[in-house]
Design goal:
The complex is a heterodimer. By secondary structure, chain A is mainly β. Chain A has one helix and 27 strands. In chain A, a hairpin with a 7-residue loop joins strand 6 and strand 7. Chain A is globular, with a radius of gyration of 19 Å. The two termini of chain A are about 15 Å apart. Chain B is of the alpha+beta class. The chains are: A mainly beta, B alpha+beta.
Chain lengths: ~375, ~90
């Protein structure tokens, strides 16, 4: 994995638009720009690392249907996708589903330069072969038993797994093989799933992951992974921040190890996102949230902190220098934690209070890069090399 | 026939609120609008050909909730979105 030396851009997706934070090469100053798409809910904005110029943005407004915006010049000009992700027209008598929003957009394998994947709510997987202009459903997943897409929240019938509906939120592509995919969903039949045939068929990969909201806490499916990540240097190792803890899996094993049990008991291992070091395969960062009692889902005790492991989860270090010491009640959502490829690595998070925090020493110390933004949904790093 | 485009969709019509389109039904009209302003239909009608939840259609100032409503050439169509939000 290369070491970046150029400017860093943070793409900040919020409930009211898209902002960017652009740094100088030394990352000494971050300049805030925006918004683009003022008033739109921007779920995710990603710069294609394969060409450093294609941007794909998942958007919707509160009332209009979802869409995808694309730029091939790093955001100078935008075009709307000709055919955003959408379910096929349902035959009579079959469930007639519609996409509420695209949650995640993910660039495809390096060998497939125009391929992108999208995960949606209700949970479904889509693939684009034209850099995000048109999207086709991946029927192998969407028609499988693992994608029991449900009506939106509040509608009659079985209720989805999250307040925003069932979500396919994480898509991981094996850097060695474009046909080897992992996805993760927070859904009624949720969990982590693996395909070795480019999405044609899928198998659950949830052994060892607790689902303490069922009578049987270790079902085959129904878990609630919040974020699934893979370090390209060690593609046989997966990490997940789950509703029920932090886990790590070393293939060919199919049983997850709850490394979150090594977190301090007073903090716990509940959270949304997880970030991985680009060059140190055993290093990862999490942002714990309060999962006690009624699940406040905010900084435990009002003292936000990032925790770092450098030994694959055996030990964890609290990193909060520069972060508020008290009365800071916010959260970082599953796409809100990002990492750059500089040396030392920069770690960033966007909080639900509208603040963007950055660390240039691998989370040891923090400074606030922006405040007064809307509720942050996602932060992604783009680097000019 | 004349169609009033709501403010959030004016980006599709280059800022023009009242546009012309034809169709023998509301569904046909919306498809004609989409040919003139690509992408606009999917923002108000989902992939199952249902009006989206917070979108309202009015024909001659009467609200309709079906796309198979028949239209006459002199009809006036309004498209609105709900005021709720946050």
């Amino acid at each position: 994995m290369h070491t970046a030396t150029g400017p860093v851009t943070l793409f900040v997706a919020t409930k009211k638009g898209l902002w960017t934070l652009n740094s100088d090469p030394a990352r000494e100053r971050f300049a805030l720009s925006g918004p683009e798409f003022l008033g739109h809910i921007i779920n995710h904005a990603v710069l294609d690392p394969r060409d450093d110029r294609t941007l794909v943005v998942a958007a919707r407004t509160g009332h209009l249907g979802p869409t995808i915006f694309r730029s091939d010049d790093r955001g100078k000009r935008w075009k709307e996708a000709s055919r955003p992700p959408a379910f096929p027209k349902a035959p009579d008598g079959k469930p007639a589903l519609s996409i509420d929003h695209t949650f995640a957009v993910v660039p495809g394998h390096a060998s497939e330069p125009d391929v992108w994947y999208a995960g949606t709510a209700p949970e479904a997987l889509f693939r684009s072969e034209d850099a995000g202009d048109t999207w086709e459903p991946v029927a192998g997943f969407n028609d499988s038993p693992w994608a029991q897409a449900l009506p939106p929240p509040g509608a009659p019938g079985p209720q989805p797994g999250t307040p925003d509906g069932d979500i396919l939120h994480s898509i991981v592509i094996d850097p060695r093989d474009p046909a080897h995919l992992y996805v993760a969903s927070s859904a009624t039949a949720g969990g982590v799933f693996e395909s070795v045939d480019a999405g044609g068929s899928w198998q659950p990969l949830n052994a060892g992951c607790e689902a303490n909201f069922f009578p049987d806490p270790y079902p085959e499916v129904g878990q609630d992974p919040h974020c699934l990540r893979q370090n390209p240097l060690t593609p046989d190792v997966l990490w997940q921040q789950n509703h029920c803890g932090i886990y790590r899996l070393e293939r060919p094993s199919d049983t997850w190890d709850r490394i979150g049990n090594n977190m301090p008991e007073e903090t716990g291992d509940i959270g949304f996102g997880i970030g991985l070091h680009p060059r140190e395969p055993d290093t990862a960062w999490v942002f714990p949230m309060d999962g006690t009692d009624v699940w406040p889902r905010i900084s435990p005790s009002g003292r936000p902190a990032v925790y770092r492991t450098r030994d694959a989860g055996q030990t964890w270090q609290r990193c909060d220098h520069g972060l508020p010491r008290e009365q800071a009640w916010y959260n970082v959502l599953r796409q809100g934690l990002a990492v750059d490829a500089h040396d030392p690595v920069g770690v960033y998070f966007g909080a639900t209070c509208g603040e963007i925090w950055g660390s240039l020493d691998e989370a040891l110390s923090w400074s606030c890069l922006a405040s007064h933004l809307p509720f942050v949904l996602a932060v992604e790093v783009g680097e000019l090399n | 026939m004349k169609v009033s485009i709501p403010q959030p969709l004016l980006s599709y019509t280059n800022g023009v609120q009242w546009v012309e389109a034809d169709g023998t039904s509301l569904d046909a009209l919306l498809r004609a609008l989409d040919r003139s302003y690509p992408g606009i239909r999917f923002r108000v009608v989902d992939e199952q050909d249902r009006p989206r939840r917070h979108i309202r259609f009015f024909v001659n100032r009467e609200q309709v909730d079906r796309l198979d409503v028949a239209l006459a050439p002199t009809d006036e169509i309004h498209i609105f979105q709900a005021l709720s939000g946050g």
